[in-house]
Specification:
The chain is mainly alpha-helical. It contains 8 helices and 2 strands. The chain has a two-stranded antiparallel ribbon. α2 (about 25-50) runs antiparallel to α4 (about 70-85), α4 packs antiparallel against α5 and α5 runs antiparallel to α6. It is elongated. The relative contact order is 0.12.
Length: about 160
C-alpha cells in the first residue's frame, strides 16, 4: 500500500493531508532531507567550535587566507546564528540563505589567494544544506519543482 496511516507530524498536518494519511514516499523524502541536513549542521558546528576554541591549526589556516585571529569569535557567532535558524523549521529558509552567504564568503576567500581545492568544502556544505531543506520542506519543493519531459514532447510532438 502506498499510503501509511501514521501519527502525522505538525509538518504533515500543515500540508492538509486528510486524516493524517501521508504517502509513504513523502515521509521518506522528508526523513532523507532531515538526515542530509545533519551534514552541513555538523560541518558548521565543527567550524564554529574550532573558531571559539582557537584551534591552533584553524588559527594558522585563518591567517593564511588573510583573516585576523581576533575576528574568530564574531565569525563563529554568525555561523551559530545561521545554523540555529537553519534547524528551526519556521526559519530554515532564512538560515539556508545566511549559510549560503557565509559559504560564498569562504569560497571567495580561498579563490582570492589562488586556492582551488579548499572551496569544495564550503560549496558542498551549501549544496547539502539546500538539498536537505528541499527534501524536508514541501513548500520549497512546490516552489522549485522538478519537471519531467513528457514522452510525446521529447519525441517532438507538441502537446
Amino acid at each position: 500500500m502506498d499510503v501509511v496511516a501514521s501519527h502525522a507530524t505538525p509538518e504533515e498536518r500543515r500540508q492538509g493531508v486528510p486524516g493524517g494519511r501521508v504517502p509513504r514516499w513523502q515521509r521518506w523524502i522528508v526523513w532523507a532531507g532531515r538526515i542530509i541536513s545533519c551534514a552541513p549542521v555538523y560541518i558548521v558546528l565543527s567550524s564554529a567550535q574550532w573558531k571559539l576554541t582557537s584551534n591552533p591549526w584553524y588559527v594558522r589556516e585563518w591567517g593564511r587566507i588573510g583573516w585576523a585571529a581576533p575576528d574568530l569569535p564574531l565569525v563563529a557567532s554568525l555561523q551559530l546564528v545561521a545554523i540555529v535558524l537553519y534547524v528551526i523549521p519556521q526559519t530554515a529558509v532564512l538560515g539556508a540563505v545566511l549559510l549560503t552567504g557565509y559559504m560564498g564568503g569562504a569560497i571567495a576567500s580561498y579563490l582570492r589567494i589562488g586556492e582551488s581545492y579548499p572551496p569544495l568544502v564550503p560549496l558542498t556544505t551549501a549544496l547539502l544544506a539546500w538539498l536537505g531543506l528541499y527534501l524536508r520542506e514541501p513548500r520549497l519543493r512546490a516552489l522549485l519543482p522538478f519537471r519531467r519531459i513528457s514522452r510525446q514532447r521529447h519525441e517532438g510532438v507538441s502537446v
